[in-house]
């Protein structure tokens, strides 16, 4: 059975996979798997963007998002006659049988099915089944410059699948697109000396939450600190630096990535 592996640490947001999909499918009919993809309005492989944090501490998350080729596809449960799941795991919507069945678009929890008004059919990623039949890679995988997108037999990726995640597992569709190194959330800030009007490098920053372990980092040569790959929750922060009074901040509610802003430290008074 085939699987897709998406390594988020390797994806740099080049949009090569999205462009490759357009290159392969716009204006090309690959029957019996797909009619031509329209030039606009559909992205069978799309790169989703999400901004994390607030200026000036902002990162952008890029997530390649094809059809998930589920083992229990909601689309085929809604309209069983519309297509089939191949022996290699790829889910195909039959271009003839799907005509006029627009309701299948709403059935996909991943919003990976699109409606073509001109052809009166639902369309989606086929996993480039026409290329796979020839022993080739899906075009999006073949053109991925960083190796962030891979495709092959489930057994080849067993070790990676064991530590990977899938999208929307609560939907029960059992997708066959596996994600590694999802970025999660971050907390960041800056530490400085208001009297000297300079940043403080090497300050110790501790982050903790009730019932969990404490994380620790130090400020860099810009006075910045970052805690990455955090789960949502309520955290407490403590900042310490030699010669300065410590600063604490509690009840930090983390629902989205957060730039806490700057923390001015006051010089410790001499005894």
From TrEMBL:
Pfam families: CarboxypepD_reg, Fer4_11
Annotated GO MF terms: 4 iron, 4 sulfur cluster binding; metal ion binding
Keyword Lipoprotein applies: no
InterPro entries per the UniProt record, alphabetical: 4Fe4S_Fe-S-bd (IPR017896), ET_IronSulfur_Cluster-Binding (IPR050954)
Domain of life: Bacteria
Signal peptide: none
Keyword field: 4Fe-4S, Iron, Iron-sulfur, Metal-binding
4Fe-4S ferredoxin-type domain boundaries: 2-31
PANTHER family attached to this UniProt entry: PROTEIN NRFC, PROTEIN NRFC HOMOLOG
The protein's name: Fe-S-cluster-containing dehydrogenase component
Organism, as annotated: Desulfitobacterium chlororespirans DSM 11544
Organism lineage: Bacteria, Bacillati, Bacillota, Clostridia, Eubacteriales
């Amino acid at each position: 059975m085939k699987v897709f592996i998406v390594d988020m640490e390797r994806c740099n947001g080049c949009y090569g996979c999205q462009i490759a999909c357009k290159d392969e499918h716009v204006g090309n009919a690959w029957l019996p798997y797909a009619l031509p993809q329209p030039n606009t309005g559909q992205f069978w492989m799309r790169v989703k963007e999400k901004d994390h944090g607030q200026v000036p501490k902002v990162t952008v998350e890029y997530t390649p998002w094809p059809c998930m080729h589920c083992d229990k596809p909601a689309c085929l449960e809604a309209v069983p006659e519309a297509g089939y799941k191949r022996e290699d795991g790829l889910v195909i919507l039959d271009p003839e049988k799907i005509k006029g069945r627009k309701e299948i678009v709403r059935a996909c929890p991943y919003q990976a099915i699109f409606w073509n008004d001109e052809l009166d059919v639902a369309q989606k990623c086929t996993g480039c089944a026409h290329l796979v039949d020839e022993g080739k890679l899906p075009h999006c995988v073949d053109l991925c410059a960083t190796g962030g997108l891979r495709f092959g037999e489930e057994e080849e990726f067993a070790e990676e699948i064991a530590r990977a995640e899938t999208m929307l597992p609560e939907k029960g569709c059992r997708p066959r697109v596996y994600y590694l190194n999802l970025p999660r959330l971050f907390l960041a800030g800056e530490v400085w000396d208001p009297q000297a009007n300079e940043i403080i490098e090497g300050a110790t920053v501790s982050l903790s939450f009730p019932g969990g372990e404490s994380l620790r980092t130090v400020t860099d040569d810009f006075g910045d600190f970052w805690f990455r790959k955090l789960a949502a929750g309520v955290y407490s922060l403590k900042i310490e630096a030699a010669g300065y009074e410590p600063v604490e901040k509690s009840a930090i509610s983390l629902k989205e990535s957060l730039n806490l802003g700057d923390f001015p430290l006051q010089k410790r008074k001499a005894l």
